Amino acid sequence: MRTGFFLLAAFVAVVSGSPAFRNLLVHEQRRDIPDGFVKSTPAPATKMLNLRIALTQGDMAGLEKALFDVSTPGSALYGQHLTKEEVEAFVAPSSESVSLVQQWLAANSITAQTISPAGDWLQFSIPVSQANTLLDADFTVFTHPETGTTLTRTLSYSIPAELIGHVDLVHPTITFDNPHANLPVVVSPKVVRPSSEEVPDLESRAVPSSCNTAVTPACLQAMYGIPTTLATQSSNTLGVSGFIEQFANQADLTTFLKSFRTDLSSATKFSLQTLDGGSNSQTASQAGIEANLDIQYTVGVASGVPTTFISVGENFKDGNLEGFLDIINALLAESNPPQVLTTSYGQNENTISAALANQLCNAYMQLGARGTSILFASGDGGVSGSQSGRCTTFLPTFPSGCPFMTSVGATTGITETAATFSSGGFSNVFARPSYQSSSVSTYLTALGSTNSGKFNTSGRAFPDVSAQGQNVQIVLEGSKESVAGTSCSSPIFASVIALLNDRLAAAGKSPLGFLNPFLYSAAGAAALNDITTGDNPGCNTNGFPAKTGWDPVTGLGTPNFAKLLTAVGL
């Protein structure tokens, strides 16, 4: 009897010591449905949901300090980027967090798999009926009549009280897709290339007048002093993100080089990397405007830099993030990720939950600490965000509001002025980082009361820099076309950084890595061409005006290669 009593007492102690997971607390909720979406019907009970849990990461404050230590000129650790293992040690969730979440899932007969290098993301699938109970949610079908998009989402969800501080978010729950993809627009067909006598002499920096209406690699070389000499360091690589089944066509690249870079071998190729079931069809009719643009203005501008097209398929592990997190996790899993990554896609910040935006931003922090420069197009809707005009207050884009990446706006013309579509503004999620505090404060003082109340004056400001984004010549299905968008600007600026990294590698120095502390330094800002005219209308306003110094249309300005070489110590 005594032995049985002690066994029973021990059993009761174990049970009573286990979390009950019954007290659910609201974890995330949104007050309104994103513009353009309509609430439809309750989601079918048997519909399967692929859910992801982001566990609270270990020491992101420590990683942020490490990132700035290796990225800030003048720091004793400048250029000493972290290893894969060092980054993962900062990010890995605590054993307590892992144990509690696994207990909660097991109590609900759920088995999850780890989908990130540091173990901070888990994935599992359950039907809507179980998800509604598990998360005290109301999963509903939402439609977007303009595009035909249909999503299953909830406007709020809860987690057990025991998991507060251990779970950052469950996804996809309150985050919506952005149906307006950030893609360039074909504006005029078959623009003729400038004749050979118009190709500029880099010493004189004369810019042909034709560059006002047809921007080519030769125009960029003249405007920005970008060298034509081949890169020499094979270890220095440039990554180009590809999404939504946009395929980069090798035959079109060959035609582009024959037309616009006759000094480069027309046989120059790019490498292919795939994930999430990605591919890169070479059928001429399936060539993508965006993918061709991105490849042609990296291979064709970053002369000789090994370039990889990273095609993300539609078997996403990150839900409606459509591979944005998957591509970063894939690169974080590599021992030697590319030194530069350019992406010409994005969405409005208000479509994504603050917790999820922070998770993605932290992923960019991790890759930046590894020594990768991450550049994104800022968007093409002016202060209306990403190609959307319905707004009363200004719409910042994501991920441009993340402080751990470099946002690229657009300019136009030989005498450069802001492109009217260039998205820029202030994040409603992320606070202004210290590296841009002085520059942004100066702008806001000069701006005065203009647009007062329409933007968050304390938010992270973007874009950071800019480059040509209008009348840019590409080849699509064998024909020359003209495109416009910040989608042009990001690969152009990324190519400049890749060429700087080539020179640094040749000198035995580290790549630039996370760019912003350098760009906003006195030396970095002085190496850029300040753009002081133009604005970015939207939301029934003229948007922000470009001014001397940083502005939320063109950032700090466009590149001057010679000055940048000096600024990086070469």
UniProtKB/TrEMBL annotation:
GO MF, one example: tripeptidyl-peptidase activity
Pfam families: Peptidase_S8, Pro-kuma_activ
Principal subcellular localization: secreted
InterPro entries (alphabetical): Peptidase_S8/S53_dom (IPR000209), Peptidase_S8/S53_dom_sf (IPR036852), S53_propep (IPR015366), Sedolisin_dom (IPR030400), Tripeptidyl-peptidase_I (IPR050819)
Superkingdom per UniProt: Eukaryota
Domain Peptidase S53: 214-570
Catalytic residues (UniProt): 290, 294, 487
Cofactor binding remark: Binds 1 Ca(2+) ion per subunit.
Subcellular location(s) of the protein: Secreted, Extracellular space
Binding of Ca(2+), residues: 530-531, 549, 551
Enzyme Commission code: 3.4.14.10
Annotated keywords: Calcium, Glycoprotein, Hydrolase, Metal-binding, Protease, Secreted, Serine protease, Signal, Virulence, Zymogen
This protein's record includes keyword Signal: yes
Gene3D superfamilies xrefs: Peptidase S8/S53 domain
Any single biological process term in GO: proteolysis
Signal peptide location: 1-17
Keyword Secreted: yes
Cofactor section: Ca(2+)
Cellular component GO terms, alphabetical: extracellular region
Biological role: Secreted tripeptidyl-peptidase which degrades proteins at acidic pHs and is involved in virulence.
Identification of the protein by name: tripeptidyl-peptidase II
Species of the source: Pholiota conissans
